[in-house]
Amino acid sequence: MVFHMRKLSNKAQFFILTSVVIVGVFFTLSKYINDYSFIDTSKAAKGSEFFMFENIKEKAIKTLQISNTLNFNSRLATYKNFVEDSVADRGYTIVFSYYNVSDYVYFSMTLVSDKYILKSEFSEVIPHPTCDYYCVSLDYENGECEQNEFGQCEEKGRDYQSGGDIYCTGGEDENTCCCFPGT
C-alpha cells in the first residue's frame, strides 16, 4: 500500500510540474506573438475633458478649412452653438470665441470642469473660394471661371444655367464659376 501511494504521489508531482511548464511556455509565447495587443488607456484615465477639448479644437480647424471667405462666419457660429450645447450636456463650461483679421481667424477656447481648466489660443487661414472647391463640394468633377455677358454657365452642351452659379474671386464681376460633370 505504501508503494502504491508513493507511486501516485510521484504521478501527481509530475502532473503538476508538467502543467506549470506548459502554462509557462504558452505565456511566454503569447508575449512574443501578441506584444502589440496591449491598449494604452492612459488618455482615457486622464478624463474625457482632454479628449473633448482636443476634439473641439480639431473640429474648429476642420470647420474653417471646409469654409471660405464668404461663409466662414455662419459656419463657425453654428459650430460654436453646437459646441456650447454639447459641453453643457456633459456638465462642463466652455468659453469659445473667434474673430477674424484680414485672412486669419483667431480662436480662443477655455474648457472648465470640476478637475481641469484647459485653455488654447490659435489661428488659422481663411480659405479663399475657388471654382474647383465649389464644384467638387457640389459633386461635380471640376470647375472653371468663364466670362459670360449674362453671368451664366453652359453645362456641357446644355443651355446656360443661372441657378447655383457662383461669382469667381479675383476677377471681373462678370466671371462666374461653371461646374462640369465628370466624363
Features:
44% helix; 3-stranded antiparallel sheet; alpha+beta; 5 helices; 183 residues; 2 domains
Description of the molecule:
- The chain has 183 residues and is α+β, with helices and mostly antiparallel strands.
- The protein has two domains: 45-125; 131-180, no CATH class.
- The protein contains five helices and eight strands.
- It has helices at residues 2-33, 42-46, 48-65, 72-89, 131-137; strands at 93-101, 104-112, 117-125, 142-147, 153-154, 160-161, 166-167, 175-180.
- The strands form three sheets. Strands 1-2-3 form a three-stranded antiparallel beta sheet, with helices on one face. The protein has a three-stranded antiparallel beta sheet with strand order 4-8-7. It has a two-stranded antiparallel ribbon with strand order 5-6.
- α3 (48-65) runs antiparallel to α4.
